[in-house]
Amino acid sequence: MLILVINPGSTSTKVAIFDGDKKIVQKSLRHDIKELEKFDDIMEQEELRKKAIIDFVKEEGYDIADFSAIACRGGILPPLQSGTYEVTAEMVDYLKFKTPVKHASNLAAVIGYSISNGSIPVFITDPVSVDEMVEEARLSGIPEISRRSLAHALNIKAVAREVAKELGKKYEDLNMVIAHLGGGISVTAHEKGKMIDVNNANDEGPFSPERTGELPVGDVIRLCFSGKFTRNEIKKMFVGKGGVVAYLGTNNMQEAIEMAKKDEKAKLVVDAMAYQIAKEIGGMCSVLKGKVDAIVITGGIAHNTKFVEKIKCYVYKFAPVFNVPGEFEMEALAKGALRVLKGEETAKKWGEMYETA
Ligand SMILES: Nc1ncnc2c1ncn2[C@@H]1O[C@H](COP(=O)(O)OP(=O)(O)O)[C@@H](O)[C@H]1O
Ligand SMILES: CCCC(=O)OP(=O)(O)O
Question: Which ligand is nearest to the CA of 201?
Answer without folding.
Answer: 2
